[in-house]
Amino acid sequence: MDALIAPLLNGSAQGALLLLAALGLSLTFGQMGVINMAHGEFLMLGAFAAYLVQQVITATDLSIPVALPVAFVVAGLFGLLLEVTIIQWMYRRPLDTLLVTVGVSLILQQAALQIFPSQGVPVEKPGWLDGQLNILGYDWPLRQLFTILLATVCVAALSAWLKYTSFGRRIRATVHNRDLAETSGISTRTIDRLTFFAGSGLAGVAGVAASLIGGTNSQMGAQYIIPAFLVVAAGGIGQLKGTIIAAWAVGVALAYFAYWTTGSLAQVLAFILVIVFLQLRPQGLFTVRTRSLA
Amino acid sequence: MTKKPWISLSGIGVFAVLLLAVAPLVLTDHWLNNLGKYCCWAIAAVGIGLAWGRGGMLVMGQGVFFALGAYSMAMHLTLETAGDRIPGFMVLYDPLAPLPAFWEPFRSAGFTLLAIVLLPVVMAGILGYALFKRRVKGAYFAILTQALAVALATLISSTIRETGGDTGLSDFKYFFGFVLNDPANKVMVFLIAAGLLVVCLLAVWQLYRSRFGELLVATRDAEERVRFLGYDPANVKLVAFVVSALMASIGGAMFVPIVGIITPAEIGAAASILMIAGVAFGGRASLFGPALGAMAVGWGQSSLGSTWPEGWTYILGLLFIVVILFLPNGLSSLPARFTGRARRKPVDQPATAPVVAELEEVRS
C-alpha cells in the first residue's frame, strides 16, 4: 500500500510545481495565443531573485515570504519588457513568436550563466519547511505541502482575479472577442501588457518554489518549459481547471513511472502518454467551443 | 521559383561544382572536414525547409530523426571497429554482459543502410499520421516534436551501457571497410556528404515544381480550402514530414563518420533549435536558403563558438530575434526586397491573418 501511496504524495507535489510553471503559460498562451519559450527563463529569474533576496535578508525564515512577491515583480517586469519590445509586434505570427522567444531564452540563459556561477547558487530552505506533517497516517514532507499550498493559492488568486476584478473581466472580454472588446472601449493593448506581466510573474513565483526543491542554475528553465507546455496543451488552452487536472495527472504519472522504472524513462513515458492523450482529445481536456474553422 | 526552373537548377549546378570539385582542392583537411559537418546540417536543414518553409510545420525536434540516422551509423561503425569483440565502452560497465539484442543486426552494412532510410520513414510516418489526422498543428506540433527530442536525448543519456550515454559513441576506425584516418578516405566521406546534399537539393527542387509542391504551399496557406477542394491536407503534410525526417536521418548518418562522435547533445532540444536557426537565417521557404543558412550557422558555431562561446550564444539569440522580427523570410528575401518585389507577409501564417490585418488597416 505504501508503495502505491508514496508516489501519489510525491507526484502531487511534483504536479503542483508543474501547475505553477504552467499557470503563467496558460495565461499568456491561453488568453493571448503567445507561445513564450522564455517562460522557463522567467522561472529561472524568480529562482535567482529568491537567492538575491536571501543575500539581503539573512534570516532564512523570513526570506522566502519576501522572495515570493519580489520574484513575481522581477519576472513580471522582464515579461512586460519582452512584450513591449518584441512580442507586441508579432501577435499575428504565433510560430514566429515562438522562435523569437527561443532567441530570448538563449540570451537569458547565457546571461545567467555569466552572472551566476555555472554550478548554480544555493537557495537556503527555511527551517519551517523542514520536517513532516502526519496526515491520515502518512508523513508529508512540509516542503511538498508548501508547494501544493502555494499552487493552490496562486490558482485561487488567478481565478479570482479573472472572475471578480474589472481587469479580469476586461481580459476575458478581450479573449472572447478582441474587436468587440476594443469597440466597447477596452484598451486591448493595456490588457495584453497586464496579462503578460501577470503570466510572467507567475513564472517567477514558480521559480521560487522550484529553487526550494531542485537546484537553481541557468539550465533550470529549460527543464520545466516542455513539461509545462504539455500540461497546458493537455489541459486545453485557456482552461484553468484543465491545466490543474493535467498538471496533477502528469505529476502523478511521472512519479509512478519513476517509481517503477527510472527517472529518465519516466519522462519519456510521460511524454508518450501526453501525445497519446492528445490523439484522443486534440484540443485538450476542456475546450472552448468556437465557430472558427481552423 | 516555378517560373524560372532553369535558374534554380543551374544554381544547384554551380553549388555542386563548388562543393564537389573546388572545395576539396582549395580547403585544408581541417576545413574540408568542417565543411563536411556543415553539409550534414545542411541536409537536415533542406528537410526542415520543406516541412517548415513550404509546409508550415515547424519541426523543433529534427534531432530525433538526425539521431536515428546517426546512431544507426555509429552502431555499425562501432561494431566494425570492435570486430568480433564487444564494444569497449560496454565492457567498461559490465564485462560479461552480451551485446544488446538491438545492436546485433547493425553488424550488417546492408541492414544499417536500410535502417538509416527506413527508421525515420516509419517513425515519422506513424507520428505524422497520428498528429496530422487529428489536425494537430502549429505550436502544438512544434512543442510535441521538441518534447520528443528532449525525451530521446534523455533516454540516450540514461542508457550508458546500451548507447554510451552522455559520452556517446566515438572512436570509429573503419567506414564500410575503409580506414577512416586515411586522408583520401576522409575526402571520400566528404564527397559523399556533399553529394547527398546536392541530391537533396535536386529532390526538393523537383518537389517544389511538382503538383505536390503547389499542394503543400496551398495547405500551408489555407488548409481548410485545400480540404474543401477534395484533398486530404493530412496526407500532403505527412509526405513532406516523412521526406524531411529522411533527410535529417541522412544528415545524421553522414555526421558520424565526418565528426567521429555522436552524443545526445548533438540531437537534443538545443541542437534541434540550432538547425532551425540556420533555416530561418537563410530563408525557410527558398530553395537554397535552408542549406546555406545552416552552413553559415555551422561555420559561425565552429569559428566563433570555439573562440568566444559566450558571445556566440548571444549572437545566436539575437539572430533569432532580428531575423524573425525583421526578415521573416530570411536572408534569401533580401535581394527581392531591394528590387521591390518583396512579399511583405511572412510565409507560414494562417490565411486569415492578412484579412484581419487589412480590416485593421481600414479601421485605423
UniProtKB/TrEMBL annotation, chain A:
<feature type="transmembrane region" description="Helical">
    <location>
        <begin position="98"/>
        <end position="116"/>
    </location>
</feature>
<feature type="transmembrane region" description="Helical">
    <location>
        <begin position="194"/>
        <end position="214"/>
    </location>
</feature>
<keyword id="KW-0813">Transport</keyword>
<feature type="transmembrane region" description="Helical">
    <location>
        <begin position="42"/>
        <end position="60"/>
    </location>
</feature>
<feature type="transmembrane region" description="Helical">
    <location>
        <begin position="66"/>
        <end position="86"/>
    </location>
</feature>
<dbReference type="InterPro" id="IPR001851">
    <property type="entry name" value="ABC_transp_permease"/>
</dbReference>
<dbReference type="InterPro" id="IPR052157">
    <property type="entry name" value="BCAA_transport_permease"/>
</dbReference>
<keyword id="KW-0812">Transmembrane</keyword>
<keyword id="KW-0029">Amino-acid transport</keyword>
<comment type="similarity">
    <text>Belongs to the binding-protein-dependent transport system permease family. LivHM subfamily.</text>
</comment>
<keyword id="KW-0472">Membrane</keyword>
<keyword id="KW-1133">Transmembrane helix</keyword>
<keyword id="KW-1003">Cell membrane</keyword>
<feature type="transmembrane region" description="Helical">
    <location>
        <begin position="142"/>
        <end position="162"/>
    </location>
</feature>
<feature type="transmembrane region" description="Helical">
    <location>
        <begin position="220"/>
        <end position="237"/>
    </location>
</feature>
<feature type="transmembrane region" description="Helical">
    <location>
        <begin position="12"/>
        <end position="30"/>
    </location>
</feature>
<dbReference type="Pfam" id="PF02653">
    <property type="entry name" value="BPD_transp_2"/>
</dbReference>
<dbReference type="InterPro" id="IPR017779">
    <property type="entry name" value="ABC_UrtB_bac"/>
</dbReference>
<protein>
    <submittedName>
        <fullName>Urea ABC transporter permease subunit UrtB</fullName>
    </submittedName>
</protein>
UniProtKB/TrEMBL annotation, chain B:
<keyword id="KW-0472">Membrane</keyword>
<feature type="transmembrane region" description="Helical">
    <location>
        <begin position="109"/>
        <end position="132"/>
    </location>
</feature>
<dbReference type="InterPro" id="IPR043428">
    <property type="entry name" value="LivM-like"/>
</dbReference>
<feature type="transmembrane region" description="Helical">
    <location>
        <begin position="35"/>
        <end position="53"/>
    </location>
</feature>
<protein>
    <submittedName>
        <fullName>Urea ABC transporter permease subunit UrtC</fullName>
    </submittedName>
</protein>
<keyword id="KW-0812">Transmembrane</keyword>
<keyword id="KW-1133">Transmembrane helix</keyword>
<feature type="transmembrane region" description="Helical">
    <location>
        <begin position="311"/>
        <end position="331"/>
    </location>
</feature>
<dbReference type="InterPro" id="IPR001851">
    <property type="entry name" value="ABC_transp_permease"/>
</dbReference>
<feature type="transmembrane region" description="Helical">
    <location>
        <begin position="6"/>
        <end position="28"/>
    </location>
</feature>
<keyword id="KW-1003">Cell membrane</keyword>
<feature type="transmembrane region" description="Helical">
    <location>
        <begin position="238"/>
        <end position="263"/>
    </location>
</feature>
<feature type="transmembrane region" description="Helical">
    <location>
        <begin position="59"/>
        <end position="79"/>
    </location>
</feature>
<feature type="transmembrane region" description="Helical">
    <location>
        <begin position="187"/>
        <end position="208"/>
    </location>
</feature>
<dbReference type="Pfam" id="PF02653">
    <property type="entry name" value="BPD_transp_2"/>
</dbReference>
<feature type="transmembrane region" description="Helical">
    <location>
        <begin position="139"/>
        <end position="160"/>
    </location>
</feature>
<dbReference type="InterPro" id="IPR017778">
    <property type="entry name" value="ABC_transptr_urea_perm_UrtC"/>
</dbReference>
<feature type="transmembrane region" description="Helical">
    <location>
        <begin position="269"/>
        <end position="299"/>
    </location>
</feature>
